[in-house]
Write a structure and sequence with these properties.
There is one protein chain. This protein is an alpha/beta fold. The protein folds into three domains: about 100 residues, YqgF/RNase H-like domain (Nucleotidyltransferase, domain 5, 2-Layer Sandwich), CATH 3.30.420; about 90 residues; about 140 residues, no CATH class. The chain is about 55% helix and about 10% strand. The strands form two sheets. The protein has a five-stranded mixed β-sheet. Helix 5 packs antiparallel against helix 6 and helix 10 packs antiparallel against helix 12. The protein is globular, with a radius of gyration of 26 Å.
């Protein structure tokens, strides 16, 4: 066996190779044609990469060659992260040494990360674009509201109508007393909002089409009041494979809805939620908490009682934990939601199919 530690960069890679005795056979400081090097790998090779942009794409192709490929979390791989003299040679050598040691003994366990499938990576890429669009939309809305305030227009409902319906806002601009620079800025922001709104509709349609292989799971999850097809796809793209979580707490920790715990001697401190995790699901579902609490009488009562004792912030996170636990059981057992509202479910299903099957016209979505 040969053990390859690859420090992968955008345009090149530094590679350290060791034999079965752990001796470094060679070090290649710069491989610009990584595809050609990869073609030389076979069943007698084991490769380790750090998780970064493009690492999963290369890992798939390395595995197609018959070689074993491990992708590790660089933040948990302290040999590299805490190195005083960080160089490409040291990083590649540390990777190959760690791979050799882990294969020879169980004392060293590499912090291996789950390798998402191409479908999951495609969905995550689209949801990343979704978050960028939402950020730009929020910034432009705040910009318009700020300009109106600077011109003495403090009526919030007026500003809200203008940014929520940019086509109406463009008509209202001429009726307002604004400076010439303010008129130009508001008009430009509203036109950009209109364009981003159309792009968001097109992106939603592409998300639904890309996620079509997951339609069975989507149909199951939207039976929960407050869970739209978009939220269901966001949840499924975050978790990837529900069976890889051995218990509920592992899933909740992955989604970032469990508190951080610091314990020393007999003192234990529970802090805020752990944000070093996947944040898409938490962000999407936090915006629908009130709808989620209406999905069952038990959940509604649980939320109200917790709000009185703990406040809205902790109650919201507690509801998300309950919902994610229910969704996990639904997926594992393929069981519909107990309190599914059939009429609402059919409406969501029709909208989902209409948007997914619509053509390029943004208004259809």
């Amino acid at each position: 066996m040969r053990y390859h530690g690859i420090d992968l960069h955008k345009g090149s890679a530094a590679i350290s190779v060791r034999d079965e005795a752990g001796r470094e056979l060679r070090y290649v400081p710069r491989v610009s044609e990584f595809g050609g090097y990869m073609a030389t790998l076979g069943t007698e090779d084991a490769v380790v990469l750090e998780s970064s942009s493009g690492s999963f794409w290369w890992a798939e192709r390395i595995q197609r060659q018959g070689a074993r490929c491990v992708v590790i979390d660089p933040y948990r791989f302290r040999i590299i992260r805490d190195s005083w003299h960080k160089t490409d040679r040291r990083d590649a050598a540390a990777l190959s040494l760690a791979l050799w040691m882990s294969s020879q003994s169980r004392e060293l366990v590499l912090p291996e990360v789950w390798q998402p499938t191409p479908l999951v990576r495609e969905l995550r890429r689209l949801f990343s674009q979704w978050r960028i669009l939402n950020t730009q939309i929020r910034q432009l809305k705040a910009q318009v509201q700020g300009i109106l305030l600077e011109n003495g227009i403090s009526e919030r409902k007026l500003g809200g109508r203008m940014v929520d319906k940019p086509e109406l806002g463009l008509k209202l601009v001429s009726t307002l007393t604004l400076s010439s620079a303010s008129v130009f800025s508001v008009t430009m922001s509203l036109k950009m909002l209109q364009a981003l709104s159309d792009q968001k509709k097109a992106l939603r349609r592409e998300l639904y089409r890309t996620g079509q292989p997951l339609e069975e799971q989507v149909r199951l999850l939207i039976g929960v009041r407050g869970v739209t097809p978009l939220l269901a796809l966001g949840f499924l793209s975050d978790i990837g494979d529900i069976h890889r979580f051995h218990n509920l707490r592992a899933l909740l920790a992955y989604l970032g809805v469990v508190p951080t715990v610091r314990s020393s001697a007999r003192t234990t401190h529970h802090g805020g939620i752990n944000r070093c995790s996947r944040s898409l699901t938490r962000t999407l579902f936090s915006q629908a908490v009130l709808h989620l609490t209406d999905s069952s009488p038990l959940l509604k009562r649980f939320y109200r009682e917790l709000v009185e004792r703990k406040g809205f912030g902790r109650a919201r996170i507690a509801v998300l934990r309950k919902i994610f636990g229910m969704m996990r059981r639904m997926l594992l057992s393929n069981t519909p939601y107990r309190w599914k509202e059939e009429q609402l479910y059919q409406e969501k299903l029709r909208d989902y199919q209409r948007i997914r099957d619509s053509e390029g016209n943004p208004t259809a979505a």
